[in-house]
Specification:
Blueprint: H1 21-31, E1 35-39, H2 40-53, E2 61-66, H3 73-81, E3 85-88, H4 91-99, E4 107-110, H5 116-124, E5 129-132, H6 135-148, E6 152-157, E7 168-169, H7 189-197, E8 202-208, E9 212-213, H8 219-239, E10 246-248, H9 264-282, E11 287-292, H10 294-297, E12 301-313, E13 316-321, H11 330-333, E14 340-343, E15 352-356, E16 365-366, E17 382-386, E18 407-410, E19 416-420, H12 425-431
Helix pairs in contact: 2-9, 5-6, 8-9
Length: 439
């Protein structure tokens, strides 16, 4: 059993998953290192945190998981059993959700390319709620719906063009995502809305926007909601009455990554105030959807590696582990400062410490957060990277012909099992073209 009195506490004030030293070493001996380890209970707890954060909303609130963050089937299965929605952007993600026990009825599909073939495929697989973000996409969706003889609940992705202070921004002038409210062209929310309302086979469902990732200031949501309210009221004066049945406000809830961040209750409570005001203003008690990939999955998972070498170089101490950025790519791409600790730990080193990976690349140096504890590092000890459940697994790459490490999971009953088998080097060789050498 886990002693909750010794659990580390995240900057949101929520206990992070803790695994005993004995269990980590036992798993390392059985499966080798590095390995990922997911805690199912944490996945479920994060859903509850989101639901509590938006509990003051006057209508129905639904959580949606953005599968792009972590498409491990065991993770998807856990979220399926929670009864939440799934935000998808590729037919292959839909395959994963369906094979993991999910239903197309709980899917909100947001394509980036919006091609006719893509829409035809997901409609054949049962998806009936689709988000469009371009005039050409609308034409393709209309044709796909007509060809299948079905009615598609159509949402419009808008770009509110508000200032967002975030690690990754999804709302900006001339951005990749969404439509301007009134851009004066066919690729504007007003023009697309007008077409949707007048097109047989399409049923207008509502609006969608996504402002960014790791958002800590709710002011950008307030600006976006204010702009949406003005747009709806103006569009009704010109187009006549229409209902807003669903509003998807995207993701953005922050993960600590070594610093203090607001909780879903902190952010959600402030956002909900204006959403309730929007309900009163437009007269529609719409279903509110908040998406998350990073928030729901990041804190559930640790990466366990082993110290394989230590070198003193001048005044610095270099700790080498058998992992590298090929399994934790955000550390190199975005300089994420994952909380890291030596297990078992020891006294802090008086030297400056650098934590480096096994790759022949000068970028393979892990940023160290203020929450990291690297004292007591010795060859053979384990080093645990925390909060790595989002994007790390899906960005694994075979640099240096490195096979993918295993992914393990502790289920809700406390039992450990395999969520993804380790990739064999022979299989990697075949997948990279080795099986074509005889041709």
């Amino acid at each position: 059993m886990v002693d909750t009195r010794t659990q580390p506490v995240s900057r949101t004030g929520v206990a992070a998953p803790r695994f005993s030293d004995a269990d980590l070493y036992s798993l390392a001996e059985r499966y080798g290192t590095p390995y990922f380890l997911i805690d199912e209970a944490t996945l479920r707890r994060k859903v509850s945190e989101m639901e509590q954060g938006f509990s003051e909303y006057k209508g129905v609130f639904r959580v949606a998981y953005s599968v792009k963050a972590n498409f491990n089937p065991s993770v998807i299965k856990a979220f399926v059993s929670e009864g939440i929605l799934f935000d998808l952007t590729a037919p292959s993600e839909l395959v994963f959700v369906l094979k993991a026990g999910g239903s197309s009825e709980n899917v909100m599909y947001t394509s980036i390319t919006e091609s006719a073939d893509e829409y035809e495929r997901v409609i054949r697989m049962g998806v009936r709620k689709i988000v469009v973000a371009s005039h050409n996409g609308l034409v393709n969706l209309t044709d796909a719906a007509a060809k299948a003889g079905v009615v598609v609940k159509t949402m419009i992705r808008v770009n509110p063009e508000v200032h967002v202070h975030a690690e990754l921004r999804g709302s900006m002038g001339h951005g990749k995502f969404g439509l301007q409210f009134n851009g004066g062209s066919q690729d504007s929310a007003f023009y697309v809305l007008k077409k949707v309302l007048g097109t047989p086979g399409l049923e207008f469902e509502g609006f969608h926007f996504h402002l960014g990732s790791q958002i800590e200031d709710p002011a950008c949501y307030a600006d976006a909601i204010e702009k949406l309210e003005a747009f709806v009221l103006s569009a009704r004066r010109q187009l006549g009455p229409f209902r807003v049945k669903t509003l998807d406000i995207g993701g953005g809830l922050p993960v600590p990554y070594g610093k203090k961040v607001p909780s879903p209750k902190d952010l959600g409570g402030k956002i909900v105030e204006q959403l309730n005001s929007l309900v009163e203003s437009i007269g529609d008690r719409f279903t509110l959807v908040a998406e998350s990939g990073r928030f729901l999955s990041a804190e559930s998972t640790v990466l366990v590696s082993r110290v394989v070498n230590i070198k003193n170089f001048g005044e610095a101490k270099y700790i080498y582990v058998d992992a590298g950025y090929h399994v934790l790519l955000d550390s190199a791409l975005l300089r994420h400062e994952y909380p890291v600790e030596v297990v078992p730990g020891g006294k802090p080193s008086p030297q400056k410490v650098a934590l480096v990976g096994r790759l022949c690349d000068p970028l393979d140096v892990f940023p160290i957060s203020s929450r990291s504890k690297l004292g007591g590092a010795e060859v053979g000890k384990l080093v645990v990277f925390r909060e790595v459940g989002a994007y790390s697994l899906v960005m694994n790459m075979p640099f240096h012909s490195q096979p993918r490490p295993p992914v393990l999971m502790r289920n809700g009953q406390g039992t450990y099992g395999v969520a993804r088998k380790a990739q064999d080097v022979e299989k990697l060789f075949a997948d990279e073209g080795g099986d074509c050498l005889s041709n």
